[in-house]
Amino acid sequence: MSSLKTRERLEYQDILNIYTSGCKEKSLHTIGLEYERLPISMVTNQTVDYSAEFGVCNFLRVFAKSENWDYITDDYNIIGLKQGHDTITLEPGCQVELSVKPEKSIDFLKKKVDTLNSLMEPVLDKMGITLLGYGVSPLSTHKSINLLPKRRYGLMAKYLWGILSDVMMRETAGIQGCFDFVSEEDAVRKFKITNKLTPFVTAMFANSPIRGGVDTGYKSFRALSWLNTDNDRCGFAYKLGDEYSFDEYIDYVMNTPMIFISREDLPVNINGKITFKDFMKNGWEGFEPTLEDYLLQANLCFPEVRLRNFIEIRNQDCGKKQTPYAVLALYKGILQSESSMDEIEELLKPYNYNDFAELRYNVPKNALSAKIAGDSVKDIVKEILYISEKSLISENDGDEKYLDFIKEYSLQGITPADVIIRNWYGIWNKDIKKLVKYLSD
């Protein structure tokens, strides 16, 4: 986020400035990546604990010392590392997330991630840990995964009311792509398009059928967990009308119940008793709203596409090493040109809000076998890939090569999950070790 001054009393214009500060000319646009993976023991195939002798905390300690990274701490607990603009942070179940400085090229992002992976690999190997490219914990469930000792996560775990919120927090790993915009009009257009695309892309990259050592019957159990986390703050941002604007997104954030605020690095529990709009009007037990409070509130809303001073697209299962770049290339091809966005809008024009809402609930189970208003998702996905690839080729920067990974699946009408299910009942004979080895390669 841009660095913005906080007044003594937060004004609406301060909030609006967060979003308008993201408007930048196209020549300055970059692509960002957040890449979560599951820390799995090479010996037990269980999720690695934070505080174990060969656990995630000690991995961070050793890596920081060997590569000169700084600690990120919470109440004296190491919860991540940073070096310049790059971070290695931990999600609630100790999922390891890489976040690197946004770049103009997917090639540059890949080189940075490859370098970080090559630096981490010797430390991980010595500790018997593999970072698994998979959407949900393959063997351990949330009941046996300790929550990271980060104070805000404790409050979130107690507040989030969905029946699978613990699964989402402790078991799942995903990939997020970030894209810039030129103007409010451009931001809103991209926001609408990506909201409509997310169920199709979730289907394409479905990669979490085996959980707790058994076939769940879902191709993306991760996507299912998000549908059952907290409907106030997850899923679609709303019905996206023709007059949608930054103001409407801000209204969504402000009307979402608050979980907590932070004062002097200590969380102050609100537990959903007021919305941010109420907080702006009346304060809370002597606390007055600040810009940092709004930024926290916005970060505690988890729509599938999040509007910041960039567009953050959130709902793809983690996958094998090629997956992050395929996700970025797919969206880049669509969002980088007016003609590509025109084609996507025309492709998806026949479907209404209820069609997309129904599709979101069908995709976790059926992925590409789902239908929208009677039409085949696998056929629509092929059109989406064609539009994106055509756009990438026209740019002549070679990024279309990153689509090859997902094309190999989608053009056959299958997903990474389908391959896993076939092998699970075939040559793996339901052996979790073989699944982990496959995902680690």
Which value, in Å, is the CA radius of gyration?
Answer: 21 Å
Distance between the ends: 36 Å
Overall geometry: globular
Structural class: alpha+beta
Strand content: 15-25%
Question: How many beta-strand segments?
Answer: 17
The major pleated sheet works out as: 9 strands, antiparallel
List low-pLDDT spans. Answer: 1-7
Q: Count the DSSP helices.
A: 17
Report the mean per-residue pLDDT as an integer.
Answer: 95
Q: What proportion of the residues is helical, as a percent range? A: 40-55%
What key phrases describe this protein's structure?
441 residues, alpha+beta, 9-stranded antiparallel β-sheet, two-stranded antiparallel ribbon, 17% strand, disordered N terminus
What do you see in this structure?
- The chain is an alpha+beta fold and 441 residues long.
- Helix content is 44%, strand content 17%.
- The protein has 17 helices and 17 strands.
- The protein has helices at 12-20, 56-67, 106-126, 151-159, 165-171, 184-204, 221-227, 246-254, 276-282, 291-299, 323-335, 338-348, 353-366, 377-395, 404-410, 416-425, 432-440; strands at residues 31-41, 70-74, 77-83, 86-90, 96-103, 129-132, 174-179, 210-211, 214-215, 234-235, 260-263, 266-269, 302-303, 305-307, 311-317, 371-372, 375-376.
- The strands form five sheets. Strands 1, 2, 3, 4, 5, 6, 7, 14 and 15 form a nine-stranded antiparallel beta sheet that branches. Strands 8-9 form a two-stranded antiparallel ribbon.
- The chain is globular.
- The chain starts with 11 loop residues before the first helix and ends with a helix.
